[in-house]
Specification:
With 304 residues, the chain is an alpha/beta fold. It has two domains: 2-102, no CATH class; 111-298, 3-Layer(aba) Sandwich (Uracil-DNA Glycosylase, subunit E), CATH 3.40.470. The protein has helices at residues 2-27, 50-57, 85-90, 96-102, 122-129, 164-169, 176-187, 213-230, 239-247, 253-256, 274-279, 284-298, and strands spanning 63-65, 71-73, 76-77, 92-94, 148-149, 155-159, 196-199, 234-238, 260-263, 266-271. The strands form two sheets. The chain has an eight-stranded mixed sheet with strand order 3-2-9-10-8-6-7-5, sandwiched between helices. A two-stranded antiparallel sheet has the order 1-4. Helix 1 (2-27) packs antiparallel against helix 2 (50-57). The two termini are 40 Å apart. The structure holds iron/sulfur cluster (SF4). Iron/sulfur cluster is lined by residues 129, 132-135, 137-138, 144, 201-203, 215, 218-219.
């Protein structure tokens, strides 16, 4: 009799959480979810199902891996009850309901996360890139913009791709948007030399168009190798293209900015691209709120 009550309570909690997850997906602007999507397709990071874990502890059914990603929003941290974040990451739970409803929940397994070279340096990666012609962006570039900054940075910014100034100089974020980024970095008490700055693609897309999927797919492994070498505490994705690429989601930046996501063994926070802020100065206030979270996280005032 006691077992029956236990199971009933566990299933009620699971149903309650599934309802919560559906609302979460709707909030993110997702109207359809294709559970058959392959790895690396547009995926939204989802927190683990607490009740699924609870059911697992109760001994319920088949083995499925939970999402490695938890996400907090508006001060509400979504956690598996009674467990440390590290324990949650490693938790293996059971529950066919989770698998069938959400498929593989983890977006963090991006293509670049397949085995990476060990013990390499940024110089090794740059040497490997060479005078790259791996994608069609090489046709119009002047310089490859590899990235620059502190190779041991706690904070790394990732933008979309080089613009005209960057193409001309071979340095990331040196135009007007770059000057604003410098001011954003200084606003949180840091200097440009303390952080590392890179882009999703290393050659300028003609006319400053967005990089195309094949170009991103060809170039992004270099970025992941850079992240793997630098191992920053926090990656700040600048703008929608960088955010969507890194988090494998179609959700708009307006829905994701200012939130912390698990990403490749570190944390990622999306915010607006400085070029967008130059066009939309009324969004600077939002960006400042995001930057304060970056500062507080790096200072240990926010634990994610
Ligand atoms: S964008 Fe990347 S992959 Fe394409 S040519 Fe430049 S360095 Fe090579």
């Amino acid at each position: 009799m006691r077992d029956d009550r236990h199971w009933r309570q566990a299933w009620l909690e699971l149903i309650d959480e599934i309802t919560r997850y559906v609302k979460y997906l709707q909030e993110m602007g997702i109207e359809e979810y294709d559970a058959t999507m392959p790895m690396g397709a547009d995926r939204l990071p989802l927190p683990p199902l607490a009740s699924a874990a609870h059911l697992a502890e109760s001994g319920a059914s088949k083995e499925v891996e939970t999402s490695a990603l938890s996400e907090s929003s508006s001060g509400e941290h979504i956690t598996v009850k009674g467990e440390s974040p590290m324990a949650q990451k490693k938790k293996r739970v059971t529950g066919q309901a989770q698998a069938s409803l959400f498929g593989d929940l983890a977006p963090a397994e991006s293509p670049g996360e397949s085995p990476l070279p060990v013990d390499e340096t940024l110089d090794d990666i740059r040497a490997d890139i060479g005078e790259c012609t791996r994608c069609k962006l090489h046709e119009h570039r002047t310089h490859i913009v590899f990235g620059e900054g502190n190779p041991h940075a706690d904070l790394m910014f990732v933008g979309e791709g080089p613009g005209a100034d960057e193409d001309a100089t071979g340095r990331p974020f040196v135009g007007r948007a770059g000057q604003l980024l410098d001011r954003m970095i200084e606003a949180i008490g840091m200097k440009r030399e303390q952080v590392y700055i890179a882009n999703i693609v290393k050659c300028r897309p003609p006319g400053n168009r967005e990089p195309e999927p094949d170009e991103v797919a060809t170039c992004e492994p270099f970025l992941y190798r850079q992240i793997n070498v630098i191992r920053p505490k926090l990656v700040v994705a600048l703008g929608g293209v960088a955010t969507k690429t890194l988090l494998r989601t179609k959700a708009p930046i307006s829905k994701l900015r200012g939130r912390f996501f698990d990403f490749r063994g570190t944390k990622l926070l999306p915010t607006f691209h400085p070029a967008f802020l130059l066009r939309s100065p009324n969004k600077k206030r939002d960006a400042w709120e995001d930057l304060k979270k970056v500062r507080d996280f790096l200072q240990g005032k926010i634990v994610e």
